[in-house]
Structures are given as structure tokens and as C-alpha cells.
Design goal:
The chain has 6 helices and 17 strands. With 335 residues, it is α+β, with helices and mostly antiparallel strands. The chain has a single domain, classed as Anthranilate synthase.
């Protein structure tokens, strides 16, 4: 099975095409000792494995590359407002009962394909519109074809120098963003979690933040963690510890993870997993798969979610998902 990944790092002017044989593993831990472009789902399984595209071919600025869509939408139904209402009530009740500190509730929508738009054109449009984000167009027979424009680093670095972030909280971008207590608390949960995971792998790290960052029309709170790793042969264990972070899952992690799988109305698939290069040309750049959509021959499925705490308001959380969906909608409709 062959696959490809076309990607452009944040603030970069060039993009890279990587293609080759696709390999499958069933957990992030099995990424230790691997090299290539990784496509990991929210919940790795035999049905949704972690995929690694071996870098048989690595090129830059392949403007004539035009991937073909891999499948038609088999189920064009999408989460309705009533589905979200049911899920929110369920999730929020468990937060109020003290079962969880945080839960992330997500949803998806389907839109028809726009005539004459190719996947490559959508990718190039995203690169122009979102210079601060990681833009990825990736396709395999197993995963389907995905476009993502994400601001969240899961793990990046080379040699002994590495970085991750704690990113949470969302508001429309403005020059003078004022963060609510809910957003600040949500981001602090993620930062504390990242700190606890890093302490298992290194005793040399620094935290900078939180500070406001811009991601298209949105603002987020972000803390940057820089750390050293004396060896990287067990990098899969670090990824297993970090993913999924509370930014896309919840706390406590394992209990929230199981609750989401059992209670969300839709299958997240590769949304809220992670994508990126792992030791390709000496560099690792893995990003959480946010602000994304799967591209089909006849339509698009867009994904978005938001973190819920005890004091979350359903209407405000719904509006936040609508705003996040606009990241891909704006690419589709040339906004």
C-alpha cells in the first residue's frame, strides 16, 4: 500500500512531498525506531491503525502533484444540533458529578464538494491563508484523504533538543484578547498534564507561558515546553504518554478517553490524532490533527471540538465549534 504526505511547516515558504510504502502499527509506543510520515488516529485500533509512510521519495514544491481522492462518502449524515445537545447534557452531568475535571466534546459536519476544486488547490489555499499553521494534505488507502491546518505541536525537535506545547482555550482573535477563568483553567489542566508526562522522560525542561497565539481567525492560550532527551530510541513511549493530551481528550486521561469513545455521537477517526514527520531528514515535526477535514469524491467531512468544564455553557460551546469549523469552511468557500 502506497501513501503520500504534502506538508508545509508554520511560517515556512516551501512545502515538502513525501511518498512511499505505508506500514501499520497498533499503538503510539510502536513508533520507537520508526522513520517516516505518521498519521495517528485519536484511538489506535485494528480498524484505525497508526500509519507510517516510509520516505521513499522526498521532494520540495511539487506544484504539478495532483492527488486523486480515494473514496466516496459512504455515510453523509452529520451530527445535528440535537445530537450535540444530548452529548453536552451527558458530558456536563458527569463533570458536575465530579467524575471528570475536563471532557472534550467533538462533532462533524458534511459539505458537498465544490466543482473544479482539486485537493492540491485546497492545500495551496490553506498555505496562503494560514501561514502560522502546519498545513498537511495526506492520503493512504487505509486513512482516506485528509487536509489539516493545525496550530498545535505534539512533539518537534532533533538531536537532544525537543519541544511540545500545552494549547487550550479558544476565542475570536483580537489585539486585546481577555481570557475567561474557564479558558485559563482549561489551559492550566493541559500544561500540568504535559509537565507530569515530561517528568517521566527528562529532568531538564522549561515552560514558557501561557501566552496568546493567533491561529487564523482564532486565538488560543499556549505554553511552550523545551526539553532535552539524552536518547530517542524510546520516542514512541513519550508519544504514548502525551497522546491524547487533555486538549483533545480530558482528565483523568484514561477514564475520559473511554468515556468519549463510548458516548460521542460520531467516530473521530483520524481527527484529534496527530500527523507529521518522524525523523525525516533528521527532523521530527508532529502536530495534533485539528481544524481538519476528510476529502471524498463527492464531499467533505469537517471536524471540530471543544473542552468542557463544570461551568461550560452549551450555547457558547456550540458557537466555539462553529467558529473552529470555519477554518476549513473558509478554505472551501474562498472566504
Amino acid at each position: 500500500m502506497q501513501g503520500f504526505a504534502l506538508f508545509r511547516l508554520p511560517y515556512a515558504t516551501d512545502y515538502t512531498l513525501l511518498s512511499g510504502q505505508v506500514h501499520e502499527v497498533l499503538s503510539c509506543a510502536e513508533l520507537s525506531g520508526r522513520q517516516g510520515f505518521v498519521i495517528a488516529p485519536f484511538a489506535p485500533s485494528a480498524e484505525r491503525p497508526v500509519l507510517i509512510i516510509s520516505p521513499d521519495r522526498v521532494e520540495g514544491n511539487c506544484d504539478d502533484f495532483d492527488p486523486v481522492e480515494l473514496a466516496a462518502i459512504t455515510d453523509a449524515s452529520a451530527d445535528s444540533r440535537s445530537d450535540y445537545h444530548i452529548d453536552f447534557a451527558n458530558f456536563h452531568a458527569h463533570l458536575m458529578n465530579g467524575d471528570f475535571q475536563k471532557l472534550v466534546l467533538s462533532r462533524s459536519i458534511c459539505l458537498p464538494r465544490q466543482p473544479h476544486d482539486t485537493p492540491l488547490q485546497l492545500f495551496q489555499r490553506a498555505c496562503r491563508k494560514y501561514p502560522r499553521m502546519m498545513i498537511t494534505l495526506v492520503g493512504t488507502e487505509r486513512s482516506g484523504l485528509w487536509l489539516a491546518a493545525t496550530p498545535e505541536i505534539l512533539l518537534s525537535g532533533s538531536g537532544a533538543q525537543w519541544q511540545t506545547v500545552a494549547l487550550a482555550g479558544t476565542m475570536p482573535y483580537a489585539d486585546d484578547v481577555t481570557w475567561s477563568d474557564k479558558n485559563i483553567q482549561e489551559q492550566r489542566y493541559v500544561a500540568t498534564y504535559v509537565t507530569e508526562q515530561l517528568e517521566q522522560f527528562t529532568n531538564s525542561f522549561t515552560e514558557d507561558g501561557p501566552h496568546t497565539i493567533r491561529a487564523g481567525h482564532l486565538a488560543h492560550l499556549r505554553s511552550d515546553f523545551h526539553f532535552t532527551l539524552s536518547h530517542t530510541q524510546h520516542i514512541g513511549r513519550l508519544l504514548q504518554a502525551l497522546h491524547p493530551t487533555p486538549a483533545v481528550c480530558g482528565l483523568p486521561k484514561q477514564e475520559a478517553f473511554r468515556f468519549i469513545l463510548n458516548n460521542e455521537h460520531h467516530d473521530r477517526s483520524y481527527y484529534s490524532g496527530f500527523m507529521g514527520s518522524l525523523f525525516v531528514q533528521g527532523q521530527t515535526n508532529l502536530f495534533v490533527t485539528l481544524r481538519c477535514m476528510q476529502i471524498f469524491t463527492d464531499g467533505y467531512r469537517l471536524y471540530a471540538g471543544g473542552g468542557l468544564l463544570k461551568d461550560s455553557d452549551e450555547h457558547q460551546e456550540w458557537l466555539e465549534t462553529e467558529t473552529k469549523l470555519d477554518t476549513m469552511r473558509n478554505i472551501i468557500f474562498h472566504v
